[in-house]
Amino acid sequence: MAIPFNQRLETICREKNNSLCIGLDIDPDKFSSGADTSLSGMESFGKDVIDATIDFCPVYKPNFAFFERFGSQGFALLERLVSHINGRAIVIADAKRGDIGNTSRQYATAILDGMGCDAITISPYMGRDAIQPFIENPEKGVFVLAVTSNQSASEIQEHGNQSNPLYKKVIQIAQELNTGENIGLVVGATKTEVMEEIRELSNGMPWLIPGVGTQGGDLETALRISHKNGIGIINVSRGILYAGDGSLNDVIQSAKNYTEKIRSIVWNPVNC
Amino acid sequence: MAIPFNQRLETICREKNNSLCIGLDIDPDKFSSGADTSLSGMESFGKDVIDATIDFCPVYKPNFAFFERFGSQGFALLERLVSHINGRAIVIADAKRGDIGNTSRQYATAILDGMGCDAITISPYMGRDAIQPFIENPEKGVFVLAVTSNQSASEIQEHGNQSNPLYKKVIQIAQELNTGENIGLVVGATKTEVMEEIRELSNGMPWLIPGVGTQGGDLETALRISHKNGIGIINVSRGILYAGDGSLNDVIQSAKNYTEKIRSIVWNPVNC
Question: Which residues does chain B have within 8 Å of residue A128's beta carbon, measured at their own beta carbons?
Fold first, then answer.
């Protein structure tokens, strides 16, 4: 019998005693000087980061923009990196798709079946029929944008009156659709003031939490609240990939530091 | 001096006496029996449709999902089709992107600079900083999703009280950002009841109007209202690409029929 995505996610986090997600925003403009900035250099860097962290890191999140930037060749590189992970971790496609049903179905085929990602981030502006085609297979999941970590997010996401902001409506729709236990929410780490309320509303659903690190979100608060009833996946992208002098050693050290911090807050506090 | 996108769009529509947009949702599953359904067959079909219609069709809109479905090779095919259009028409990338500034910038580089599309559709759920990186070059444009043609759109887009639904907030933001005259709105053809109001709010901005044809939207109403103060680009995808028996002749005939209908309503009513 198929194991629902949310359960698969929780199992691998328990196995690795960690809920870190390394955001694969691979950007050669940020490579240390002298590094190989070609697509082949990006591929080696990505594979090295994955191989050096996969024993303790349960989730990777490639950001599609950083690959599409290089056109079809970047897309092929993304395919190779997802294949390289090869089931050793959960892969969340950070693609923020969402379209009419007919089109969402094509994206689901492309990203979940074709490329083999485990889950995808979804923008809910077009309503529930934009989400449905992505959740038909319960083993694959979605993370629906609820509250995001960027500066101007609130002008849309809090639209409505104070007791009924848009993000609550989005969470309600996500809950209603979550009969296959394969829906989670994106909850930005900068939004601590609404987290308790969102945790109550999103009973048991996993959160994908961006905004820690460069964007200044509060890792500890986000993690403690999300784990009251479910799990919180802490995404760190630039804070790991471009840590220190950009050497692989500094990248690994940063991933270990985040892991130990996350473990000390909500998992078993052992060192990497 | 750079000519703003909205002006470029209007100029080519005037030159071709038409505001039809052919949606390139190329789907080999819908090809007539015996047709070549390989990527090479898709490429020939796409190029044949473009070449047979470009003298009278001012805008093409490739739907990224239908290319991403075939992974990096599909993405490469999309690049070749955009190159094939080669400035003979406006190309709107139907990609519905929208992310934090840092990521939106990568998408803008990929789709507007790299692939050479003229404009892109944008989902506004993350607020104005998701839109800004796409509009920095006034020659390139965006179409922001306002009201879409799908069934469950209203549960999000009309959120808020009746006098202040979310889509009005989105239109207000689009207006505020439109200082470079390179922003338009996506207004679904099924949403006739709110079009007069949206036309007043979106003073002069072009509309991209999906939902005519398969989705049953009202072409004439959408076109008359949008042209009261601006122009309306009527997108037809399946209704053209898979018209009649799916032969190129039937495709061309359908594109001509739509063109003549559009011309008879708001342009100079001459036959193709």
Answer: 152, 155
ipTM entry:
0.96
In this prediction, residue B107 carries a pLDDT of 96
- Inter-chain CB proximity B68 and A149 less than 8 Å: no
* Residue linked to tokens 């529930």: A128
Residue of A nearest to B69 (CA): A110
B169 belongs to the catalytic site: no
Report which of A45, A202, A211 is spatially closest to residue B99, judged by C-alpha positions.
A211
Residue A214 has pLDDT above 90, yes or no: no
Position A33 scores a pLDDT of 87
pLDDT confidence band for B104 (50 / 70 / 90): very high
d(CA B195, CA B1): 34
Distance CA B26, CA B42 (A): 7
CB contact under 8 A, A71 and B114: yes
More confident residue, B234 or B1: B234
Residue A118 has pLDDT above 80, yes or no: yes
Residues whose CB is less than 8 angstroms from the CB of residue A235 and which lie 6 or more positions away in sequence, other chains included: A21, A22, A23, A61, A208, A209, A210, A212
Mutation to test the B interface, candidates A125, A132, A157, most B Cβ within 10 Å: A125
Q: Mean per-residue pLDDT for B163-187?
A: 97
Question: Would the CB atoms of B99 and A101 count as touching at under 8 Å?
Answer: no
Whole-prediction pTM value?
0.97
Q: Which CATH class is domain B5-265?
A: alpha beta
User: For chain A, what is the mean pLDDT?
Assistant: 96
Question: Among the CATH numbers 3.20.20.70, 3.40.640.10, 3.30.70.1060, 3.30.1120.10, which is that of A5-266?
Answer: 3.20.20.70
Q: How near does any CA of chain A get to the CA of B176, in Å? A: 13
How far apart CA B87 and CA A154 sit, in angstroms, is: 38
B92 contacts: CB under 8 Å, gap ≥ 6: B21, B59, B60, B61, B117, B118, B119, B120, B121, B143, B208, B233
Q: With an 8 Å Cβ cutoff, is A70 touching chain B?
A: yes
Sequence ranges of the domains in chain B: 5-265
Contact B111, B90 (CB under 8 A): no
Distance from the Cα of A124 to chain B's closest Cα (Å) equals 7
Q: What is the pLDDT of residues A13-40, one digit of tens each?
A: 999 999 999 999 999 999 988 999 999 9
Please answer yes or no on whether B160 and A155 come within 8 Å at the CB atom: no
- CB within 8 Å: A69 and B114: yes
DSSP B232: E
Find, among B101, B98, B100, the residue nearest to B120 by Cα: B98
C-alpha distance from B187 to closest chain A C-alpha (Å): 12
Strand partners, A143: A121, A184
